[in-house]
Amino acid sequence: MTSSDMPLVEMTGICKEFPGVKALDGVDFTLMPGEVHVLFGENGAGKSTLISILAGVYQPTSGHFRINGRDARFPSVKEARAAGVCAVFQEFSLVPTMSVAQNLFLGSELLSGPFVDHGRARREAEKLFGELGFSIDVGAPVAALSRAQQQMVEIAKAFHAKARILILDEPTASLTERETAMLFRFIGEARAAGVGIVYISHRMHEFAAIANRITVLRDGKLVRTVDAAATSESELIELMTGRSIDRIYPDIDLASAPETVMKVRGLEGPGVHGVSFDIRKGEVLGIAGLVGSGKSRAFRTLFGLSGTVAGTVVLDGHDVTGATPETLIARGVFYLPSDRKREGLFLGADARENIALSMLNRPDTRDALGFRSPARLRRLTDDIGRRIDISQAFLNRTVAKLSGGNQQKVLFGKALSVEREIYILDEPTVGVDMGTRAAIYRLIKQMAETGKAVVVISSDLAEVMNLSHRLLVFANGTIAAELAGEAINEQTVLGHFFQGGRLGA
Amino acid sequence: MNTQVDQVSSTRGSVPAAAMTFLRDLFIRVGVLPFFLVAALVFFTLASHNFLTVQNITNVARQSVYLVLVALGQMLALVTGGFDLSVGTTIAITSVVSATVMVFVAGAYPDAAWAAVSLGLLAGLAAALAIGVVNGVGIARFGVSPFIMTLGVQSVGAGIALFITGGVPIGDLPNEFGDFFGFGSIAGIPVPVLIAILAAVVMWVLMNRTRTGARLYAVGGNIKAANLSGINTGRVLFLAYALCALLASVAGILLTARVESGETNLGGTIALESIAACVIAGVSLRGGIGRVESVVIGGFFIVLVENGMNILQIGSYMQMVLLGALLILAVVIDQFRYKLLVGEH
User: Fold this and answer.
1) Does the beta-carbon distance from B231 to A108 stay under 8 Å?
2) Which residues of chain B have a CB within 8 Å of the CB of A57?
3) Which of A298, A335, A359, B265 would you call most buried, defined as having the most Cβ atoms within 10 angstroms of its Cβ?
4) Cβ distance of A97 and B224 shorter than 8 Å
């Protein structure tokens, strides 16, 4: 057997359980030398867990894997790296306080005698970036770089490690077209040298350019591994979601005369450089943009989560510029945070209490003496539970023990606990399964069609394009485009993502 | 980054603005220390004629040796993103253990004074190392927060020190010990100062020129990233607390030699003072940032302020108030600096 037809990676029956969730369930995966193998699936489908196991971050609950034909077990990242596996995660493994050169050699510092040789590290780093065609000041601290530049450092780090198995998790998510082309050229070179590449991306148009095979995962299970050249985009979507695309997104009726409820003018804050827009009743306003485009920060700023520097925010004729979340919530504004574990939920409390805490100011939760009434709270939270389609048993369970999908439903329960006028939903379906996703879209439809204003901020382009009546595209802290109706399509939106050209370095 | 370039070019040519930019960069790079140091020097010099004299400043330098040593150790814990509240206890344990062993050995073999001193020193260092190991294992292996771990250990250690001595100082140490480590000098330079200089040089090399140093900064800067880069973060954390205890122990030995007895109260307020010295010297409480040379000056600065307050006859009670306030002010300014350094996130 020659080395070229022996798989670099052979994973069989991989299972991974986290408390309360089965993230992977009997997944098989192989990677050949010189192959680009795409992992495709929704958020929460198990792609990240699978590559984390391959990279030594997690250990599988059961199942085997072989590297170069030999049984492998990676107790930590160190062993995986020693075996030639190198991963570029979305969450960067860079130390912000250290320089680019220092980060590049982190964990394998260059020595002269017993001492670290900073001069050589700098020179080697400059040489490497020169070869890759990335222009970066290797002496600058990583914190001072743009997200795209940080991505380049991550990629350079992997190339530098001479990986035999390279894992790239959405590497192009924050790169410009030129940088993407450069990356693809290097993927091609690595491939020619026999490197196997596991590639995660949502951008289907990239697959034609680089992919050999595509493995589709859904809800932790392997759906199928297909030949990239022989599979169309619509087939991929059906494999990914298990249903055809028009059955996922409901048609949301637009109010006949949407009335403006909030006017934002020239809003400036951290990462937000002057944005103006209106939020209207009975309309879904979509917000698209890359990570770091300010799409989330703009709304965090107007919700009082980071300081407003300039601009005005008028809600129903009242000036609420720089108001605190407390004031805005009292006026009927709800913000659903993108990170439910860190910002959304009280993980140690049960689902019922999480929902009840959003009703603290409702008079009908209190008894005649003005104390919180358990009986009334139970009845009210039961009502909410029915609306968000969550069972009694789950309502009484500690939120930390619920699946991601049910946690997200609880978060929507908080949104529905009080009559609100404006729902700002930041990544409303991040890391939830397909069934929950459809349920959440129905809730959004209900909100909008009962005359509430809904803002959907999302990195999932299909989601934000299919739900929105009107779409704002953010780039570099400003609004690059406002699109409506027919003008909302992938080409146009992607085209506006890189406006301003600041990312080009 | 474009905005920065704009600022620089738009302010070119105007001298006050250029000075402001310089001060801002200085602040971002080394922190609040140069500003505090200048302010303290000016204030105390104006307030008293006895302050800015060669003799007094030399005196401050000699007195600051102990704090500098402890602050260097504290810096290790801070750079990894934690801190060590048990440095005072470490000093106390070192003092009573080394004194007890010296007295015992010197009693058994009265002619072998240097043997007694050596054994005493080894026992003191070993006892301190045990404290560092307990801290390190608790924090690195069991994931106890540095605050609770070192707070608990500081109580345990203080109790043990009092138990060993019954609260009574251990006197009758060999004269050679105090004569050399407390009052001796080589080539006109006091021995404690020489030891502190040596420790500072070793620390500088460790932090700036070795893999271990790079890893200490990495663990504090982003522990997840360090782990993903194949760094054994547990070992790095363990090492930080073990070395911190050893440096505190050296300070404990020098203090014991100075007072010529083993005492349980030698480490009194040094945990607070050492954290203050580090933070004022620009060591970030969030980890990942800190320079050895700044910490040395930071330790010197704290002792300088205490010395100035003594000259102005400010009572020790009031000094506690001012020192605590200074620490909090330094932390507030550190938050501000971190934002300038890393940007809003």
Assistant:
1) no
2) 228
3) A298
4) no
CA of A311, closest CA in chain B: separation in Å? Answer: 19
Q: Strand pairing of A70-71 and A111-112?
A: unpaired
Give the best residue of A90, A95, A272, A291 to mutate against chain B (max B CB count within 10 A).
A95
Q: How far is B34 from chain A (nearest CA, A)?
A: 21
- Helix, strand, or coil here: A167? strand
How far is B136 from B134, CA to CA, in rounded Å?
5
What is the crossing angle of helices B292-311 and B270-280, to 10°?
Answer: 120
Nearest to A225 by CA among A203, A187, A198: A198
Chain A hits for B341, CB-CB cut-off 8 Å, are 97, 141, 143
Which single residue is written with the structure tokens 């020097």? B41
> Cα–Cα distance between B134 and B150 in angstroms, integer?
9
Which residue in B has a C-alpha nearest to residue A78's C-alpha? B230
A81 touches B at CB < 8 Å: yes
Angstroms from B158 CA to nearest CA on chain A: 36
Q: Is the pTM of this model over 0.90?
A: no
Chain B residues within an 8 Å CB radius of A97: 217, 220-222, 284, 288-289, 341-342
**ipTM, 2 dp:** 0.72
- B216 vs B289: CA distance, rounded Å: 10
Interface residue of B223, B228, B340 to substitute, partner A, most A CBs within 10 Å: B228
User: Nearest C-alpha of chain B: how many angstroms from A290?
Assistant: 16
Q: Of A118, A95, A116, A81, which is closest to residue B218 (Cα–Cα)?
A: A95
The per-residue pLDDT string of chain A (505 residues; one tens digit each, 9 = 90 and over) reads 444 578 999 999 999 998 767 889 999 999 999 999 999 987 778 888 999 999 998 999 999 989 998 898 899 888 898 888 988 887 778 898 899 999 998 888 888 888 888 899 999 999 988 887 778 899 998 888 877 788 788 888 887 877 889 999 888 777 777 778 888 888 888 888 899 999 998 777 788 889 999 999 988 899 999 999 888 887 888 888 777 666 778 889 998 888 999 999 999 999 899 999 999 999 999 999 987 789 999 999 999 998 888 999 999 999 999 999 999 999 999 999 998 888 889 888 899 999 998 888 888 988 888 888 889 999 999 999 999 988 888 899 889 888 888 999 999 999 999 999 999 999 998 877 777 888 999 999 999 999 999 999 998 888 899 999 999 999 989 999 999 988 898 888 888 887 644 433 3
User: Residue A98: which of B218, B228, B231 has the nearest Cβ?
Assistant: B218
Q: Which of B1, B215, B230 sits opposite A81 (nearest CB)?
A: B230
Residues β-bridged to residue A280: A260
Give the DSSP per-residue string, B263-286. Answer: -TTTTTTHHHHHHHHHHHTT--TT
Two tokens at B97? 């253990």
Asked if the C-beta of A115 comes within 8 angstroms of chain B's C-beta atoms, the answer is: yes
The residues, any chain, with a CB within 8 Å of residue A501's CB and separated by 6 or more, are none
d(CA A398, CA A414): 15
Pairing of strands A453-457, A85-88: unpaired
A97: closest chain B residue by CA: B221
Residues B132/B138/B139/B145 CA torsion (nearest 10 deg): -120
Please give the DSSP secondary-structure letter assigned to residue B33. H
Contact call for A108 and B228, based on CB within 8 A? no
Spatial distance between the Cα atoms of B253 and B158, rounded to a whole number of angstroms: 16
Measured between alpha carbons, how far is A2 from A5 in angstroms, rounded to an integer?
6
Contact B227 A77 (CB under 8 A): yes
- DSSP labels for A182-212? HHHHHHHHHHHTT-EEEEE-S-HHHHHHH-S
